[in-house]
Known about the structure:
Blueprint: E1 6-11, H1 18-28, E2 31-35, H2 54-59, E3 62-63, H3 76-92, E4 96-100, H4 104-112, H5 122-135, H6 137-147, H7 149-154, H8 160-173, H9 177-182, E5 198-204, H10 209-226, H11 228-236, H12 253-260, H13 266-289, E6 294-297, H14 304-317
Parallel strand pairs: 1-4, 1-5, 2-3, 2-4, 5-6
Helix pairs in contact: 3-4, 5-6, 5-8, 6-8, 10-13, 11-12, 12-13
Amino acid sequence: xxxxxxxxxxxxxxxxxxxxxxxxxxxxxxxxxxxxxxxxxxxxxxxxxxxxxxxxxxxxxxxxxxxxxxxxxxxxxxxxxxxxxxxxxxxxxxxxxxxxxxxxxxxxxxxxxxxxxxxxxxxxxxxxxxxxxxxxxxxxxxxxxxxxxxxxxxxxxxxxxxxxxxxxxxxxxxxxxxxxxxxxxxxxxxxxxxxxxxxxxxxxxxxxxxxxxxxxxxxxxxxxxxxxxxxxxxxxxxxxxxxxxxxxxxxxxxxxxxxxxxxxxxxxxxxxxxxxxxxxxxxxxxxxxxxxxxxxxxxxxxxxxxxxxxxxxxxxxx
Length: 318
């Protein structure tokens, strides 16, 4: 196992400082960055995703950024396939893959494999869609929590795609989707990731939740000042893009879309986006608590950078 080259996974909740630390690692080590973010894959979604600007990306190139139009879908399976290819490409150059992001489901699928879930059932999906049209997806989320509290804790109450799939799996198989995920392949190498790399996992977890919440609010306020509303207006002008597309269910985007639909004022949109982002961070932390072999660090600790660099160098030498 130790003869396999390492691939570094840098995880953490939103606004925990992953991107800034990745840049510092890139200055110090021979790493190439791979984005692990379900929203950063979309073109035209820049401000609301905190996507690095063009100058920064020129200095610190990111793989798996801007690879889909917002009208397109991108699944965990798509990510695993693409990430495997990028990891293997980087390894052939003698450099180290550095996977950075907060989409925990992508990390889990890559490092542990994807559970073989029951096939989609068009009739069940249609029935769930009809029920959601009447009661709303938050109500469907509560319904999911009654039969699968583990999955519900990891899925946002407005994440229609994942709520629907989790309920569909339960209704068609009689087993919660979290049970299916629990028995998925937990191996490494080709069995799980389709790559010769061994995954070395780090997590940035602020000890102070109050500080994390402050950072989230500061970043969201900056997004609004930078033109987040105007970005959503431009996206709404796309002929085929609707609020039902997965890209527009992302935190902040769905709230500003609803504001532009006249559902509530801009201040309320900000407040709802803030609450949703904090809830996202809570779910990310829930995922991290279930991760094995995870090196957890407080991003506010002055020595965290040196500690991670030393660990990576040691792993590379083994």
